[in-house]
Design goal:
Elements: E1 2-3, E2 8-9, E3 19-21, E4 27-29, H1 44-112, E5 153-157, E6 160-168, E7 173-174, H2 181-197, H3 199-202, H4 207-218, H5 233-237, H6 264-272, H7 276-280, E8 289-290, E9 301-302, H8 308-312, H9 320-332, H10 338-345, H11 349-355, E10 359-360, E11 365-374, E12 377-388, E13 393-402
């Protein structure tokens, strides 16, 4: 055996196991040795190894689960951070856009105190903005029209950008007023012009039928089979899917796509007006037609802001060349009164009489498109306001948030 005290291994004789007497007089060992080939249990080293392996597997599983939890936590954290950042940007962009609506409304209200004429002043590009200083608005006529011509009026606001477009809704044909004979005639002339000049887009639907379809849609009280050539209530009920006519004022121009006769091609032509560029600079989408204000009468068209197709539609005797002459003339010398316009461009006495209650040089209803941009995120707010100078305020007719 090994001598622990000396550290020397020396062979020694192991003492025999003590004997235990049995009842028959024989003896046996108190602690019998196991027989060869028979194991009384796992060896301690084997047990230790097995326990160590089990512990390692357990640790690996726990670490793996922790890794999965941490990865999921990190992913969710990144998503939450991005959402928070996006929300913060969106809130900033909305605030900028909302401020643009208020600023434009204040500008239009300020302009109403300066005079009784509305027109397009010199474009924004003609002014010097060196040094980042805006010209004094009290010394410029119709400063609002900067945002109505060409590119939108843009201005840096903090770490963002504000872009504003303003459109004169009184320079368009109000489709909610086609019950009035004067507006009906103008709308008819406009549809006739669009159909005749772009037959592939407008189709062969009579202009009278289009006007009457709007009347049927908004009124519904027209007598069936009388003067109306438009789609009546039964027409819509027979469609698949079917729907009822509104019998109320148009709330938006997109409703035209529900009205019988207004094909996608004709609708696109109304939205484009004098071309795609004209649509881009319009705050609500169409430079030719509007649905504001929604009352059924009283609307007049501002000859200082109406586009060529609208001017041409004012009377059946007017031509595209005549309309362009008016536009060229008013660039340098806007009309200060109806008489000024009629005396110079309408020699026919009957035409003058017809136009007396159809035109104006003053506007009260404007559409505003205000966009706030923060980084790669933009929020656009579109609104329509009416000026009420007598009460020194504006009224809100329409408000919509996009983006």
């Amino acid at each position: 055996m090994f001598n622990f005290s000396s550290g020397i291994f020396s062979p020694t004789i192991l003492s025999a196991s003590p004997k235990k007497p049995l009842s028959d007089g024989s003896e046996r060992e108190a602690h019998p040795r196991p027989r060869a080939g028979v194991c009384s249990g796992p060896h301690p080293l084997i047990l230790a190894r097995e326990q160590a392996g089990l512990a390692l597997v357990t640790v690996v599983l726990i670490v793996s689960l922790l890794a999965v939890v941490l990865v999921e936590f990190a992913y969710n954290s990144r998503i939450q951070l991005r959402m928070a950042d996006s929300f913060a940007k969106q809130l900033k962009a909305y605030t900028i856009a909302r401020g643009g609506i208020d600023a434009a409304a204040d500008l239009l209200l300020f302009d109403s105190r300066k005079g009784q004429v509305d027109f397009f002043s010199a474009p924004l590009e003609s002014f010097d903005f060196s040094g980042g200083i805006l010209p004094d608005p009290t010394k410029i006529e119709e400063i609002w029209s900067w945002a109505a011509q060409g590119t939108p009026f843009s201005y840096p606001v903090g770490d963002g950008i504000l872009a504003i477009k303003i459109s004169d809704e009184n320079g368009k044909i109000n489709l909610n007023q086609v019950e009035e004979v004067k507006t009906r005639k103008i709308a008819y002339q406009l549809f006739e012009t669009i159909i005749s000049t772009s037959a592939e887009r407008g189709g062969k639907i009579p202009a009278e039928a289009l006007v009457d379809s709007i009347r049927e849609w908004t009124d519904g009280d027209l007598e069936t089979g009388t003067d109306s050539q438009g789609a009546e209530a039964d027409f819509y009920l027979g469609l698949t899917p079917s729907y009822s006519s509104k019998e109320g004022a148009l709330d938006s121009l997109s409703e035209l796509r529900l009205i019988g006769g207004f094909t996608p091609q004709l609708y696109a032509a109304l939205m484009e007006g004098d071309g795609p560029e004209a649509r881009k600079i319009d705050a609500l989408g169409s430079p030719l037609v509007t649905v504001f204000p929604q009352q059924s009468s009283g609307g007049k068209i501002n000859i200082n802001t109406a586009p060529a197709l609208v001017l041409e539609s004012l009377h059946e005797s007017f031509t595209p060349g005549w309309a362009q002459e008016i536009i060229d003339y008013r660039k340098d010398k806007p009309f200060r009164s109806i008489t000024d316009f009629l005396s110079q461009f309408v020699p026919d006495s009957q035409a003058r009489l017809d136009l007396q209650n159809m035109i104006s040089v003053k506007s009260d209803v404007f559409s505003i498109s205000s966009t706030g941009v923060i980084g790669d995120l933009a929020v656009t707010i579109k609104a329509v306001i009416t000026r009420i100078p007598s009460e020194n305020r504006v009224g809100l007719l329409y408000f919509r948030v996009e983006g």
